[in-house]
Specification:
Blueprint lengths: L2 H16 L4 E3 L5 H11 L4 E4 L10 H8 L2 E4 L12 H12 L2 E4 L8 H10 L3 E4 L10 H10 L2 E2 L9 H10 L6 H8 L3 H13 L3 E4 L2 E4 L1
Parallel strand pairs: 1-2, 2-3, 4-5, 5-6
Antiparallel strand pairs: 7-8
Helix pairs in contact: 1-2, 4-5, 5-6, 8-9
Length: about 220
């Protein structure tokens, strides 16, 4: 993936996690890894679906997932190696566990197309983001739009479930303290302050003395 895609993924995941949405991905280098790490760094929860047996999951990412608010999942034997047969099974499980699918970047041969096929089969919404329209790195995203009716999005606000947005807005109808918001999100006070700073910059909340409310 491009540096642009990784940066976009990082910011979108932060926004999703800020509304209480968890992240399901496949633990692969690139977008998967960035999605998991961004969720953990934002004190969110993430599910990593493996294309190998769980005991084959080595490396810092998997350790951080186990130590943080994360879960490693595999339907394979504990020591089974990854293969051309196991990774489509992983993609099927990712689609099954997710409420919707977001594809930040995909070429024509990307495994994300397999996941999108399963998501469609299961009646899940599929969203794609296209960063550099003239690049073949996004050909798979164009294919998902043309053939499967995937929706093109610019940011999290384009596809964030309305109920997630409304829950925070409703909670902030009454001015709340940082501690109350930390409890609402299930995060530390420091992380709550970080999220509130972003929401203030976006014009979604305003600070009144020691309290925060919807803008």
């Amino acid at each position: 993936p491009t540096a642009y895609t990784l940066g976009w993924t990082k910011e979108v995941v932060k926004e999703l996690v800020g509304t209480g949405i968890g992240i399901v991905s496949g633990g692969a280098p690139g977008v998967d890894r960035q999605a998991h790490l961004s969720a953990l760094e934002s004190s969110g929860y993430t599910v990593c679906v493996l294309g190998t047996g769980i005991l084959r999951a080595k490396g810092d990412l998997f350790g951080r997932i186990k130590e943080g608010k994360g879960l490693l999942v595999s339907e394979l034997d504990l020591l089974e190696r990854g293969s051309s047969f196991t990774f489509p099974r992983r993609n099927r499980l990712i689609a099954a566990l997710s409420d919707f699918l977001l594809v930040p970047q995909a070429g024509k041969r990307s495994g994300a197309l397999i996941t999108a096929g399963f998501a469609r089969e299961y009646g899940k919404k599929v969203y794609v983001h296209i960063g550099l329209g003239s690049s073949s790195l996004w050909d798979g995203c164009y294919e998902l739009v043309k053939k499967y009716g995937a929706e093109l999005v610019k940011g999290a606000g384009d596809f964030l479930p309305k109920s997630s947005r409304d829950a925070l807005a409703e909670f902030l109808c009454v001015p709340r303290t940082v501690d109350e918001l930390a409890d609402f999100w299930g995060v530390s006070t420091g992380e709550a302050l970080s999220r509130l700073s972003r929401l203030e910059l976006e014009g979604k909340v305003e600070k009144v003395g020691p309290y925060y409310r919807s803008a």
